[in-house]
Structures are given as structure tokens and as C-alpha cells.
Design goal:
Helix content: 40-55%
Protein name: ATP-dependent RNA helicase
Pfam families: CTE_SPB4, DEAD, Helicase_C
Strand order of the largest sheet: 3-4-2-5-6-1-7-8
Bound molecules: adenosine-5'-triphosphate
Shape: elongated
Keywords: ATP-binding, Helicase, Hydrolase, Nucleotide-binding, RNA-binding
Number of helices: 22
Low-confidence stretches: 1-30, 76-84, 228-242, 274-309, 601-613
Structural class: alpha/beta
Distance between the termini: 41 Å
Family: Belongs to the DEAD box helicase family.
Strand content: 5-15%
Function: RNA helicase.
Largest sheet: 8 strands, mixed
């Protein structure tokens, strides 16, 4: 594998990057992110190595790259049997380069240069539009000196006719979201993919969780990439190809859904991962897998679990806050204020369960004026939180989504409020803190959300909000090897200047804390003075309660709807009363859903739809 080969130049370069890392307060060597070899020792073309160093600023490969690149490169010399490979490594370890670099290496090496009229050679499937743009941007940089290899993307929200025109001209490496890809596969006759050699599933488990399982099967069928002999394969178009087809599957978390995708598409897969204890690349694990052999299937699933499905960056500081429901909003604002006062120039992401909740909190954070001196006139009160605030969710116009996404990428200091649309794969540089204000549900989602910080060995912290009744969620995370410590919330609240409350340090209850009470009162009067805010709050309240009911399986025991006090939930949206119609409509919906689930059992699509991203 060559991960231990260390050239003289590499030693010098690594020393330079060590110095830089120490200056940034991180030590990448300590975090065992990088391999001690060079890109060229992995077999990549010298021009590509120059690109990685000069244009991208990468001195050497990460551990996962050192492990994956030779495996993807070797596809060229392997037998003609189709391969399906799994790459499983912690968030922020450079998985994108791990598959793009070897593909580019192959494409540039063809004796007869490829050109646009050859159509698509590599297809990268991603779950979200933002990830599509991000991978495309990296690809553009990598291809700077390989102008004959054409990058492109197709995704929901873009103009179909413009995409058709681009596909007609030819795209060598295509990044796509599944729905839009299927659309073009069916309706764009000029989309040439007979030379397709690679299919990559980036964030594979998320693609499946979003309910794209059927689309993926259809895509694999249309591309002639379903595993031979599989029962679902009756109508498969098996296209004879002069190329060996190589499929790659990537995720920081692997689960039974990925197992299913592997099942329908792979033969003799190879797992690439990092051993949790030694932080060394694991030796390749070859799965023995056959549909007819249940024992083998068990072995296969066990191995996925054994490789460690939940990997959290070692240097990440993970904490939780136990907050009574009615004080959640005031606490969130206080924690944000504390974070930005402690370090005015930094990036923070707050995750919410619904689009409406993002919109409501965005308006609060950009409009709420506050002074802890009650006598200060309204016009003289400063904005509560003076940092740049952005929002990102799936109900926004595509143009606004892209603007927010790009702004948060390039800004040095900003606060991003988002749904889980930002949880997977997005690489925002230098995010210092992740706040999970609404709980993530599945532990996998927790891992991906916190993975937006502490990337590539950098420091980072995460805060998880839990209500007292939800505290068992910590045990659930522990089962997956994730441990959190408590955030010193009272100490932080005590640090705020409050006139007229000399003995506030004696308060032991969050909801009785004078700072929280004063803030809550101010928030409620702000809301009642702004009709548009009141509307936003009511909408957010409704969708929040709906999302809360959507927790699945075992999590229903922890996030119990019947334990919710709707009056306190209303208070967490600064509403003085439970919105009148909401109680009824919520109850009706709950009844309807119970009836439906009794009849048919909950479908995946419904579950996903309820937690609108
Ligand atoms: N060899 C390298 N040297 C330095 N930086 C690198 C290297 N490879 C990748 N990076 C940078 O590391 C960051 C994380 O990379 P990437 O987004 O591919 O990680 P990931 O493992 O796919 O993360 P996630 O699991 O969140 O999807 C990016 O900013 C990327 O530019």
C-alpha cells in the first residue's frame, strides 16, 4: 500500500504543515489524519500531483486517501468482473479526493484523448444539491490542467433544458442528484453513457434514507449496473461494455440500507476504512456474499458494524445542555451570544428539525432588539446578536440556497441556521461549533451533523440540546460509542450583566434564572408587537410538533409526544398561548397516522416526508 514510504521532500513539507497546524491551534500529526507518503507514491500522474499540491494546497494524502486511491487505481488491471467498493471513514477525512483523483488519473491516461463526444465516463451520485455543487467545484479545480476532461452537474431546481444542452455536448465526469439523473436517463436521448466506467455513491446511506432506493435501482438497471443473478434484475438491460465497470460507495456511516444497496449491485466488495483504535488504515476486508446464503448475509452485515459505523473526530469536544422546554429559545440565544462574545470571528451552525423552524429563528435572530436595562428606549436597543446570520433549507428558492451556501463557505465569521440539508458531506471551512437545537434522531445523523466541524484534524465543539425528559438519548448515543459531557449552562447564564439582580448567581433552575426570565419576557413582547413574527412562530410550532412525532422505533421511547407540554412548546417559540387550531389539527393528524400505520405500517417515504428537510 505504501502508506509508510516517506520521501525526503515529504518530510520537509510535512514539517512545514506541522508548523502551520501548531500556529492554528491544531496538530494534524497528533490527530492521525495524514498518511506519511506522497500522492505520487500512490501512483497518481505527476501533473495531477502538482494540481493537488499547487492548486488545492494539499501536501500529502490523508489516511483514507492513501488507502483508497491505490484500490480505485487498481480497478484498471483487475479482472473484468464488476467491482463494488465501500469507503467508510470519519467525517472530514478527504473522501472526495479519494475517488476523484484516481478517476482523473485514469481518464487522462487513455492513449487516445477522450473528448466530449465520448459522453460520460464517471457518474457521482449525491443526496443534496449543495453537495452536488461542492463536488463539482472540487472537480473543476482538479481538472484545471486536463481541459479535455469535462466536468458537469445536473440536479433538481436547475433548468432541465439547459442541462439537456450540456448533456448533448457531453460531460466526462457528471455529478448528479438521483431524481434529476433518472429524469435525464429516461427523457434525454442525447445523454451518452455507453462508455460509463465508474458509478460513485457519495453519502450512500443518506441517498437511501431520503427514499431514493427505487430510483437507484432504476438508475442501476438503466445503466446496466445491477449485479448479475439478482432477483430484482429480471428486466435489467445488460449492456456489453468494453470497459470494466467499477462502483464505489462512500459514507462516514454504514448501515443496513447501504448493505441493501451493496446487495443489489456488488460482487466481491472491498471495504476501505480506518481502524478506530490504531487509526491506521484497515487491511482490506473481502466480504463473502451471496443472496442465497443467509449465513453469509449475516457475516456481511456484522462486518459492516464491526468496522465501526460511527466515527467521530477524536479532537471534537462534545457536550449537551439539559434545558426545560419553555426556556429553549432564551437559552439558545444566550448560548449564541456567549459564543460570539467569547470569539467574535467564528462560524457556527445550528440545526433545526424543520424549514419553518429555521425561518422563525432566522427572523428572531435578525430582528430581535434587546437591552438588559429595562429603561432603555426601544429605538436605542441594540440587535441581540450582532453577527452575520444565514439560513439554508430545502424550501428556499434554489438561487437563495446557493447564495447562502456559498456565503457560509467563504465568510470568515457567520451563523448558519439549517435543516439536515447541511448535515451531509458539506465542507464549510473553519466551523468552530455545531449546535443541535432540535435533536437529530438517529445516531448516524448526530455523527454527520457534528462532522461539519473538527474536519481534517482541526479543533471543534458540538452542543446538543436535550429536554430533561429526553436525557436517555445520551445512552442511545453511548451505545454507538459517542459520549458527551454536560455544558456549564448556569455558569454561562450567570456571566450576563443583569441590572437589579444582584443575587442571580444563587439560581439553580434554568427557567427561574433572572437572565432567562428577562429574555423570555422581551422575546414574548417582541413577538406580540410584530404580526409577521407571530405567524412565523405559529407555523414553526406546528411543524416542530409534527417533526417530533416522526421519531422512529426505539427513539419514540425517548422523544415521547405524550410527554410534551404544548404550552411549554409554545413558550419555546415565544408564544404566550398554544395556537388555537394547532392542538386540534395535531390531534387529528396523530389519530389519522395511527389508523394508517395500523393498516399498512409506516413507509419510509412518509417517515422522511414528516421530517421535512
Ligand atoms: N490531502 C489533503 N490535504 C489537505 N486537505 C485535504 C486533503 N484532502 C482533502 N482535504 C480537505 O479536507 C476537507 C474535507 O474533505 P472532504 O469534504 O472530501 O471530506 P469527507 O471525508 O468527504 O467529509 P464528509 O464525511 O463530511 O463528507 C476539505 O476541505 C478538503 O479540501
Amino acid at each position: 500500500m505504501g502508506t509508510k514510504i516517506k520521501s525526503k521532500t515529504q518530510v520537509v513539507k510535512n514539517k512545514d504543515s506541522e508548523k502551520k497546524a501548531v500556529a492554528n491551534g491544531t496538530n494534524k500529526e497528533d490527530n492521525n489524519v495524514f498518511a506519511s507518503c506522497t500522492f505520487s507514491s500512490l501512483g497518481l500522474h505527476p501533473t495531477l500531483c502538482d494540481q493537488l499540491r499547487e492548486r488545492m494546497g494539499f501536501e500529502g494524502p490523508t489516511l483514507v486517501q492513501a488507502q483508497a486511491i491505490p484500490v480505485v487505481l487498481s480497478g484498471r488491471h483487475a479482472s473484468l468482473m464488476r467491482k463494488f467498493r465501500l469507503v467508510n471513514a470519519a467525517t472530514g477525512t478527504g473522501k472526495t479526493i479519494a475517488y476523484l483523483a484516481p478517476i482523473i488519473h485514469h481518464l487522462q491516461s487513455y492513449d487516445k484523448r477522450i473528448d466530449r463526444s465520448d459522453g460520460t465516463f464517471a457518474l457521482v451520485l449525491v443526496p443534496t444539491r449543495e453537495l452536488c455543487l461542492q463536488v463539482h467545484e472540487i472537480l473543476q479545480k482538479l481538472l484545471h490542467r486536463f481541459h479535455w476532461i469535462v466536468p458537469g452537474y445536473i440536479m433538481g431546481g436547475e433548468s432541465r433544458s439547459k442541462e439537456k444542452a450540456r448533456l448533448r455536448k457531453g460531460i466526462s465526469i457528471l455529478i448528479a442528484t438521483p431524481g434529476r439523473l433518472l429524469d435525464h436517463l429516461k427523457n434525454t436521448a442525447s445523454f451518452l453513457h455507453t462508455n460509463l466506467r465508474w458509478i460513485i455513491f457519495d453519502e450512500a446511506d443518506r441517498i437511501l434514507e431520503l427514499g431514493f432506493g427505487k430510483e437507484i435501482q432504476e438508475i442501476l438497471n438503466l445503466l446496466g449496473s445491477m449485479k448479475t443473478g439478482h432477483e430484482d434484475q429480471e428486466n435489467t438491460v445488460t449492456r456489453p461494455s468494453k470497459f470494466q465497470r467499477q462502483n464505489l460507495l462512500l459514507s462516514a456511516t454504514l448501515n443496513e440500507k447501504v448493505n441493501h444497496l451493496a446487495k443489489i449491485s456488488l460482487e466481491d466488495p472491498v471495504m476501505i476504512g480506518i481502524d478506530d483504535k490504531t487509526m491506521e488504515p484497515t487491511s482490506k476486508i473481502r466480504f463473502v456474499h451471496s443472496d442465497s446464503d443467509e449465513d453469509n448475509e449475516d457475516k456481511y452485515s456484522n462486518k459492516i458494524a464491526a468496522v465501526g459505523a460511527y466515527k467521530v473526530p477524536e479532537q471534537l469536544i462534545q457536550r449537551y445542555l439539559k434545558v426545560p422546554c419553555g426556556s429553549r429559545l432564551a437559552t439558545l440565544l444566550s448560548v449564541l451570544k456567549h459564543l460570539f462574545e467569547r470569539e467574535p470571528s467564528q462560524k457556527v451552525v445550528v440545526f433545526f428539525s424543520t424549514c419553518d423552524a429555521v425561518d422563525f429563528h432566522y427572523s428572531v435572530l435578525t430582528e430581535f432588539l434587546f437591552s438588559s436595562h429595562p429603561q432603555t428606549e426601544e429605538g436605542n436597543r441594540p440587535i441581540f446578536l450582532g453577527c452575520k446570520t444565514l439560513r439554508l433549507h430545502g424550501n428556499m428558492e434554489q438561487e437563495d440556497r446557493t447564495t447562502s451556501f456559498q456565503a457560509f463557505k467563504t465568510d470568515k465569521s457567520a451563523l448558519l441556521l439549517s435543516t439536515d440539508v447541511s448535515a451531509r458531506g458539506l465542507d464549510f471551512p473553519n466551523v468552530r461549533c455545531i449546535i443541535q437545537y432540535d435533536s437529530p434522531g438517529e445516531a448516524t445523523e448526530y455523527v454527520h451533523r457534528v462532522g461539519r466541524t473538527a474536519r481534517l484534524g482541526e479543533r471543534g465543539e458540538s452542543l446538543l440540546f436535550l429536554q430533561p425528559a429526553e436525557i436517555d438519548y445520551l445512552q442511545d448515543l453511548k451505545k454507538h460509542g459517542v459520549s458527551l459531557t454536560e455544558y456549564p449552562l448556569l455558569k454561562v447564564l450567570d456571566s450576563f450583566p443583569m441590572s437589579g439582580h444582584k443575587n442571580m448567581k444563587n439560581s439553580v433552575f434554568i427557567d427561574m434564572h433572572p437572565w432567562i426570565m428577562c429574555l423570555q419576557k422581551a422575546l414574548e413582547s417582541f413577538l406580540s408587537s410584530k404580526p409577521h413574527m407571530d405567524e412565523l412562530a405559529k407555523k414553526a410550532f406546528c411543524s416542530w410538533v409534527r417533526a417530533y412525532t416522526a421519531h422512529r422505533g426505539d427513539l419514540k421511547r425517548i422523544f415521547m409526544v405524550k410527554k410534551l407540554h404544548l404550552g411549554h412548546v409554545a413558550k419555546s417559540f415565544a408564544l404566550k398561548q398554544i395556537p388555537s387550531l394547532v392542538g386540534k389539527s395535531f390531534q387529528n393528524q396523530a389519530k389519522k397516522r395511527k389508523r394508517f400505520e395500523k393498516k399498512s405500517g409506516p413507509s419510509n417515504k412518509r417517515k422522511v416526508a414528516r421530517r421535512v428537510k
